[in-house]
Automatic annotation (TrEMBL), chain A:
Keywords: Nucleus, Phosphoprotein, Transcription, Transcription regulation, Two-component regulatory system
Organism whose genome encodes this protein: Hibiscus trionum
Nucleus listed as a keyword: yes
Residues annotated with 4-aspartylphosphate modification: 88
Occurrences of domain Response regulatory (ranges): 11-155
Annotated segments matching region Disordered: 52-75
Residue ranges the record marks as coiled coil: none
Compositional bias of kind Acidic residues: 52-61
Pfam families: Response_reg (PF00072)
PANTHER family named among the record's database cross-references: TWO-COMPONENT RESPONSE REGULATOR, TWO-COMPONENT RESPONSE REGULATOR ORR4
Listed name of the protein: RESPONSE REGULATOR 4, response regulator 9
Lineage, broadest ranks: Eukaryota, Viridiplantae, Streptophyta, Embryophyta, Tracheophyta
Automatic annotation (TrEMBL), chain B:
GO biological process, one term: cytokinin-activated signaling pathway
Gene Ontology CC: one annotated term: nucleus
Record remark: domains: Histidine-containing phosphotransfer domain (HPt) contains an active histidine that mediates the phosphotransfer.
Function: Functions as a two-component phosphorelay mediators between cytokinin sensor histidine kinases and response regulators (B-type ARRs). Plays an important role in propagating cytokinin signal transduction.
Full protein name: Histidine-containing phosphotransfer protein
Domain of life the protein comes from: Eukaryota
Length: 178, 145
C-alpha cells in the first residue's frame, strides 16, 4: 500500500512565543528525526493548518486578508501532513489551551494529537489540558526523554489511518462518533 | 587549550552558574549542528538584553506595574531555565516573588542582583565560547559517547 509507515517522516508543528524555546524544541524534534515547522503563536499555527479562526464560529466576519480559506480549501491541509502539535501553554493572545480547544473543535484536525508544554507546574492546569484532549503535558525545559514519548502517539495515529477506511478522498476524517 | 577549556567549563558548573540543562543542550550538538549551544546562548543574550531593557523602563514608572514586570520576568526566567542559567533563574524567581507580593523595594533590589548575576554569566560564557572557537570542535569531556 501507499503508506510506508517506517519510512514516512512524522511532521510536528511546534508553537512557542519564546525564540529560545522554539530553537530548542526544533532541535529536539529534529534530533528525533521529526520534520518540524515552528511558529510563534496559536494564530500562526491555525493559519499554517489552513484553519480559519472563523471556521467554527460564524460570529465574526473577518475581512479576508488571510486569503479566503473556504471549507473546500481546508482539505488541502492534509498535504502538509501535520501529525502532532506541540504547543507552549503561556502565550500572549491565544494560549496553548485555547489552541488545543480550537483543534479539538475542528472536524478536520481533532484527531491530531496535541501536547502542551509549560514552565509552571500547576496541577489544575495540567489536569484541565489532559481532560480537554491533550495527549501529554511536558514541564519545561523539555528534554529528549520527553520527545521520545511522542512516537507512540504518532504511531497510534498512523495505524488509525490505516485501520479506518472512512476517509474522504482529501483525507479528512469523517467523524465516526468515537 | 583544551584543558583550559575543560577547566572553564567545570568552574561554570561548580560555581553554580550553569545546571544540567546546559548539558542537555550540549548533547543536542553534533557534527551537523556543531555550534548549536553557542547559537542558543547568543539568542538568549539578545533576547535577554531586550527584556532587561523593558524591565528597566518598567521600573522607572511609579507606581510599578507589577503585572507587567512579572510578565517580563516570566519570559526571562523561562529562557534562562532553557539554557541552564542556574543563578539567573534563581534571581528571577526571587524577583517574581517580590512582584507577586507587591514589594517595590524588593523588586528593585532583586533586579540589581539579577543584572549582576546575568552580567557575570554573560562575561564567562562569552569567554568560554571564544576559547572554544579557538580550540576547535567542542569536546564535552564529561560524557563518553
Amino acid at each position: 500500500m501507499e503508506m510506508a509507515v517506517d519510512k514516512t517522516q512524522f511532521h510536528v508543528l511546534a508553537v512557542d512565543d519564546s525564540l529560545i524555546d522554539r530553537k530548542l524544541i526544533e532541535r529536539l524534534l529534529k534530533t528525533s528525526s521529526f520534520q518540524v515547522t515552528a511558529v510563534d503563536s496559536g494564530i500562526k499555527a491555525l493559519e499554517f493548518l489552513g484553519l480559519n479562526d472563523d471556521d467554527d464560529d460564524e460570529d465574526e466576519q473577518r475581512d479576508s486578508n488571510s486569503e479566503s480559506i473556504s471549507s473546500d480549501e481546508d482539505q488541502d491541509h492534509q498535504d502538509l501532513g501535520v501529525n502532532l502539535i506541540i504547543t507552549d501553554y503561556c502565550m500572549p493572545g491565544m494560549t496553548g489551551y485555547d489552541l488545543l480547544k480550537k483543534i479539538k473543535k475542528s472536524s478536520c484536525f481533532k484527531d491530531i494529537p496535541v501536547v502542551i508544554m509549560s514552565s509552571e507546574n500547576i496541577p489544575s492546569r495540567i489536569n484541565r489540558c489532559l481532560e480537554d484532549g491533550a495527549e501529554e503535558f511536558f514541564l519545561k525545559p523539555v528534554r529528549l526523554s520527553d520527545v521520545n514519548k511522542l512516537r507512540p502517539h504518532l504511531m497510534k495515529g498512523r495505524s488509525k489511518d490505516i485501520d479506518f477506511p472512512d476517509r474522504t478522498r482529501s483525507g479528512c476524517l469523517i467523524s465516526t462518533g468515537n | 587549550m583544551r584543558r583550559q577549556l575543560a577547566i572553564m567549563r567545570k568552574s561554570l558548573f561548580d560555581q553554580g552558574h550553569l545546571d544540567e540543562q546546559f548539558i542537555e543542550l550540549e548533547e543536542l550538538q553534533d557534527d551537523a549542528n556543531p555550534n548549536f549551544v553557542e547559537e542558543v546562548v547568543a539568542l538568549y543574550f539578545r533576547d535577554s538584553a531586550r527584556l532587561i531593557l523593558n524591565m528597566e523602563q518598567a521600573l522607572e514608572g511609579k507606581p510599578f506595574d507589577f503585572n507587567k514586570l512579572d510578565g517580563y520576568m516570566h519570559q526571562f526566567k523561562g529562557s534562562s531555565t532553557s539554557i541552564g542559567a542556574k543563578k539567573v533563574k534563581a534571581e528571577s524567581t526571587l524577583f517574581r516573588e517580590y512582584c507577586r507580593s507587591g514589594n517595590a523595594e524588593g523588586c528593585v533590589r532583586a533586579f540589581q542582583q539579577l543584572k549582576k548575576e546575568y552580567g557575570t554569566l554573560r562575561k564567562k560564557l562569552e569567554a568560554y565560547f571564544q576559547l572554544a572557537r579557538q580550540t576547535g570542535p567542542m569536546e564535552t569531556a564529561s560524557r563518553p559517547k
